[in-house]
Amino acid sequence: MNPTPAFRRLSAILPGLVLVLGLAVAIYDPRGMGSFLQNQVFDLYQQILPREAAPAGPHAVYVDIDAETAKRFGAWPWPRKRLAQLVERVREGGATAILIDAALSEPDPTAIRELMQLWAPLPAGGDFAGLAGALQSLPDHDRELAAQLRATQAVVSFVPGKTAFDGQHMPARPASIVPQGGEPRHYMHEYKTWRPTLAPFEVAARGVGASLPGDAATGIRVRDLPLLVNLDGTLYPSNVLETLRVARNGSGYRAIVAAPEYGFSFEMEPGLERVEIGDTPLVAQTTRDGRLRLYFGRDDTRSAVPAWKMLDRSADVPSLEGRIAVIGVSANGVERMFDTPAGTALASGAIAASAIDQIAGGHFLVRPGWAASAEQLTIFLGGIFVILVVRRFRLRWGFTLTLLLIAGSAYGSWWAFETHRWLLDPALGAVTLLLACFTCALMTRLHTEDEIRFVETQFGRRLSSSGLARMKANPRLIRAEGTLRDVSSVVAGLRGFNIIADRYLEDPTAYADILNRFFSPMTKIVQDRNGMVDRGVGDTLFAVWNAPLDVSDHASKGCDAALRMVENLEALNEFLEEDAFRQHLSHVPLSLSIGIDTGTAITGNMGAVQRFDYGVLGEPVSFAAYLQRNARHYGPAIIVGEGTQRSVGGRYALLEIDLVSTPRHPEGRRVYALLGDPIMRANPKFRALQEAHALIFSAYRSQRWAEARAAIAECRKLNGAIPTLYDFYEARIAGYEANPPGPHWNGAFFAGRV
Asked: What is d(CA 283, CA 278) in angstroms, rounded to the nearest whole number?
C-alpha cells in the first residue's frame, strides 16, 4: 500500500524531469534536437501549402549551366569568352539585372598571359620572335567579360566559408549597409574565409554579394539563405539582395535590429528583424541572425532555361523581358544540387532565383518573437495539466487530454501558418506531452500494481469478486490513515460449539472441517450482499458493510445476511447429527448468536507501520460484539442495536427486548430482537406479540413488578413467545425487588464498557 520513499520520490520527479528536459530542448536546442523537429513540421507545411505564383509569373529566371550545356560547350568553369557570350545573350533577352551565382575567382585559362606563362620558356632555336607580339594583339577575354558586365546591370558573387585560390581580398561593397536599432553583427556568424570574385569583375559589376555559403554541402536540405554576411567584421549583402537593389536602382541597405528596451521581453526575441533596400519599397523579413526563411512554391513559381538554349538562340526560350536572370551551375562533372523543403532538388542559382521571387512578391515565413515563449509555456502548463490528470484519472483520460492538447496546438500552428505564414512549432510540445503522459502513466502503473497486490493480499478473501474488482480499479479507496465512516457491523458466533469442540480436540482435521463448514457459507452470504468479512476469531465471524466500498442501504443488507445465516445453519446441524450417529454420540444441535449495530466507526490501518492491516473499529463493532455475546440470555438468534433499527425503519420484524446503558450512553440504547423479514412484520401474530411486549416494558420501567410479571405470563401464551427472554426478565425483576434501582431509574441495564 505504501511504496518506498525512494519510489515515491521517483514517481513524483520523473514526469517533471521529462518536462524540464523538454523545456531545456526548447530553450537551448542541444545538438539541434529541437530545431530538427521544428524543421520537419515547417517543411511539411510548405509541401501542403507552397508559395503561390505571382499573376505575372516569376520575377526571376534561372539560366542553368546544366549537364546538357556542359556536354555541348564544356564543363564549368568556362572560358571568359563563353561566359561573356552567355551574358550578352541574356542582356539581349531584356533582363533587368543579371546575377552570376558563382565566384569568378580564377584567371581565364585561355587568356594570353596565362598561355604565355604556361608555354614559357619557349624552345630554343625556334622562330618565336614575333609570337608574343602576335598573341598580345588577340582579344583579352577577361576585358570582354568585364565590358559586358559594365554594360549590364550585373551582380557578381563571392562564396563565404570557402578558401580563396590566389589571395583573399575584401570584396567590393558598392552599396552601404546602415544598422538601425542595434549592431546586427552581434547576432551573426562571422566568416574568416571567403572566395572572392577577381577584382576587375567586381569593379565592372554594379553589385557584389554573397552566394550560398560554402559550408552548405551538396545534398543537404537548404531552408534559409543569409541576406547579410559578416566577413571578418564587415557586413556584406547577399547576391539576392544585391541583385534586387541593382534591378530596382536602390541606394543601399538598412539593417533593422529589434531589441527589448530593458534587455528582456516575452514578446520580442533580440536580433535582426528585417533588411530594407533604400529608395525602393522592398523589405526582406529575416531571422534573428539575418537569414531569409525560404518559401518555395510549385514548379509554376519557377522559370528555368538551359544555358545552351540561350547560346544557341533557341525559339522556346522563356521571355526575360523585365525579369531578373540568375546564371548558375547545376552540373560540373557531378551533380551540384541541394534538397529543399518543397521536396525538389535545386541548384544554388535556382534557390537564389526563388529567393528573389519570394522577396519581390513579399512572401515571408515569419517566426514571431513571442513564439518561443508561447511554445515553452504550452509545454510547461500542458505538461503539468497532463501529469495531474494522469495521476488522478489514470492513463485513459490523461492520454485523451494529451491528444486534445496536441490536436489543439497542431490546429493553432496550422491556422497561424495558413493565415499569417507564422511558424509556430507544435512538434516538440507534442513529443514532450506524450513522454510526460506515458512516463507518468508508467510510474502510476507501477504504483498501481503495488497497490493491486496489496488489495489482493488484504481483500482477496474478504470481498466478493465484484467488490475486489472495484478495489483493484481504484486502490486509492483504501486510506492508510484512520477515517470516520458509517458502517453496519454483524458479529455471528456459534452457541454450544464448546460442547462439540471437546469431542474433536484429538481430531484437528475434523475440528477444522466443522469450522470450515460454518465459515464458508457464512462468508458467501456476506459477500453476496456486498459485505466485507473483517476477520474470524475462534468460532465467531466479524462482517462489515459500507467499508471499504460504499454500499447503499447497508443496514438492511446486514439484517438480511443475518437472517440467511440462521437459515443456513441447518445444513451444518444435519452434518453434525450424522457424524454423532456414526460415533454413537448424542447429537448437540448448534445455534447462532448474532449481534448487529449501525453507526460511525474508524476505518484504516489497524496493524503496524511495517505490516498494513485494514480494519474497522468503533462503537458499532464493539456493541455488535456485546450483543452477540449476550444474545443467548435474550433467547433469539439475532439481536439488533438501536442504530440499525433506526436505519431499517419498519421493514423488519423487530421486537424491543432491552434498554442497555454504557458509559458513553448513560441514558441507555434500545435493543431489539430480529425475528424475521417484512413478511413476518406484517403478520398479525407478530403485532400482537409486539403490543404485549410494550405492556411488559411499560410496567417494568415503571417498577410495577407485579404488573410486569402478569404481562410476561400473558406473553408466554402468545404464538412466537420467547421463553428464554421471559425467564431472563423474571430473574431481573426478582433482583430489583431485592435491590430496588431507585426512583430515577429509567429501565436501563448498565452493561459497563462494551
From this structure: 9
